[in-house]
Write a structure and sequence with these properties.
This protein has about 300 residues and is α+β, with helices and mostly antiparallel strands. It has eleven helices and twelve strands.
């Protein structure tokens, strides 16, 4: 059986027994969303199609107080034990295969976690073991205690607990990640990505160089080489096309040729081939998210919270 949470597709493990007190709760903390859960053995997946449709640029710190898990990213698998912290991005696919577990997720917008734009993407799927860096257990225990604090009888204000929580998370990620010297400062990197997003149909390297006063070499290094920045722009164009196709109402799907032009592709043939290579299906084969809506559609409040962070 497959079900859905706002952020993932979930399948019960074959031998799973669902506890009567299982739960999945979201709490808005101002600059973060805290998720607490007790769940049976299950497989939780955030597939490429969901990643693209939601277009969230958020980072998750996940820790378990009970239960082990295995994460899979691009065919690579790692083991996670209680007390470990997994750092992953909602902007990239990931799969968790977990035993019956009790855990906490802290979901934060990327901008609040690092002073360098390159810091978090490199950490997607990073497992910080509890007996590794001393800060790992401190942050893991803090998140679990934070979850308990929020359900206590004494009210707690998000304004009081969120800033120190973010400071701890930033300190942990700074201490456990290698830094590169060839990347752009945070605000410049963010500004470039926002500019690309706002000018998808026309943006190219000369436009970026002129707009931000940067050499091609600087842009290449910041995006991992010439193919890196070209691939980034192409992926953002394809993501925009997927979102438009998925959100289209029945009978009002945009024409492929027009969509290709509006998303910056030279022709509908180039667009269709690139789309098929990326998503494994042709533009005409994309099902509208409106067609799939029904009684099982998850609550929209958590998604609205995340988009507002």
């Amino acid at each position: 059986m497959t079900s859905h949470t706002p952020l993932a597709e979930v399948r019960l493990a074959p031998s799973a027994t669902v506890p009567v007190d299982a739960f999945h709760r979201y709490r808005h903390l101002g600059d973060a969303v805290l998720v607490t859960y007790e769940a049976p053995a299950q497989i939780t997946e955030r597939p490429e199609t969901l990643v693209v449709c939601q277009a969230l640029d958020h980072v998750v710190l996940r820790t378990h107080s009970r239960g082990c898990a295995r994460i899979t990213i691009a065919g690579q698998t790692g083991a996670v034990a209680p007390g470990d912290i997994v750092v992953f991005s909602l902007g990239r696919p990931i799969q968790f295969e977990a035993d019956a577990s009790v855990g906490v997720d802290l979901i934060l917008p990327r901008r609040v976690l690092t002073d360098r734009e390159d810091g978090i993407p490199a950490a997607h799927g990073q497992i910080l073991v509890s007996n590794g860096h001393p800060l790992t257990r401190l942050v893991s225990d803090h998140l679990k205690n934070l979850a308990m604090c929020l359900v206590s009888s004494s009210p707690v204000r998000a304004a009081d607990i969120t800033p120190p929580t973010l400071a701890l998370c930033r300190t942990l990620l700074t201490a456990t990640q290698e830094r590169r010297d060839d990347t752009l400062p945070d605000m410049t990197g963010i500004a470039i990505r926002r500019f690309i997003e706002a000018n998808l149909a026309a943006v190219d390297l000369p436009m970026l160089s002129a707009r931000f006063g940067l050499s091609r070499a600087s842009l290449y290094r910041a995006f991992g080489g010439e193919s890196g920045i070209a691939a980034y722009i192409r992926d953002r164009r394809l993501a925009a096309a997927m979102r438009r196709l998925s959100a289209a109402e029945f009978g009002r799907r945009p024409m492929v040729a027009r969509l290709a032009h509006e998303c910056g592709f030279a022709s509908d043939r180039v667009f269709s081939r690139a789309f098929h290579r990326r998503f494994g299906l042709w533009p005409a084969e994309v099902s509208s998210s409106r067609d799939k809506a029904g009684p099982s559609t998850p609550d929209v409040a958590p998604m609205a919270w995340l988009r507002d962070l």
